Amino acid sequence: MHRIIATTALAFSLLLGSAQAEDRPTLEIVWPAAGSVIELGNDAEKAIGVIVRSNLTLLPAGKCGDNSQCGHVHMKIDPDGDSCNIPGRPYNSMNSDLGGDLIKARFGHCPDAAGKHVIGILLADDHHNPVLVDGKPVTALVTVTTK
Predict the structure, then answer these.
(1) Do 113 and 146 form a contact (C-beta atoms < 8 A)?
(2) What is the 3 state secondary structure string of the chain?
(3) pLDDT tens, residue by residue, 130-147
(4) Given 27, 69, 126, 146, which is the most exposed site by the fewest CB atoms within 10 A?
(5) Residue 100 contacts residue 57 (beta carbons within 8 Å)
(6) Rounded CA gap, 40 and 81, in Å?
(7) Is the pLDDT of residue 73 over 50?
(8) Is the separation of the CB atoms in 111 and 81 below 8 Å?
(9) What does the alpha-carbon distance between residue 4 and residue 107 come to, in Å, rounded to a whole number?
(10) What angle do CA 139, 30, 64 make, to 5 degrees?
């Protein structure tokens, strides 16, 4: 009897722990895949689309209301520096105007648009603050080569 209760308690705690882990905000870059070679757009911004996936609802900034499972993303190309940012901005792109899972990467702002780059995505709340898990921002990175 004690063994059945202990087993049931263990199973319940594993299920509870699993449910709590799934509630933690997640973020991943679906496209482009790591190591991809990507042809840049023909426009002045040499833009490509980046597709992300999150378990948060991605809406325009200011549209989440009371939904704490909602936000948007900010993107930097080569996030260790600021050389690819839009002039005067601390990022290269964000989807705070439209929301959704598509974000525009503007390689034309980089000193060298063609070459090896890191695309970094940050999950932000309705007020542009980083979403934190265990005190760390929720981010996703992928390294690509552009041509």
Answers:
(1) yes
(2) CHHHHHHHHHHHHHHHHHHHHHHCCCEEEEECCCCCEECCCCCCCCEEEEEEEECCEECCCCCCCCCCCEEEEEEEECCCCCCCCCCCCCCCEECCCCCCCEEEEEHHHCCCCCEEEEEEEEEECCCCCECEECCEECEEEEEEEEC
(3) 999 999 999 999 999 999
(4) 69
(5) no
(6) 21
(7) yes
(8) no
(9) 59
(10) 60
- Report the pLDDT averaged over residues 96-113: 92
Q: What percent of the chain has pLDDT over 90?
A: 70
Query: Which residue in this structure is represented by tokens 């900010």?
Result: 74
Six token digits for residue 5: 């209760």
The burial of 105, by beta-carbon neighbours within 10 Å (0-12 exposed, 13-18 middle, 19 or more buried), is given as buried
pLDDT by residue (tens digit) across 28-66? 999 999 999 999 988 899 999 999 999 999 999 889 999
Would you state the structure tokens that stand for residue 93, as one six-digit string?
A: 């792109």
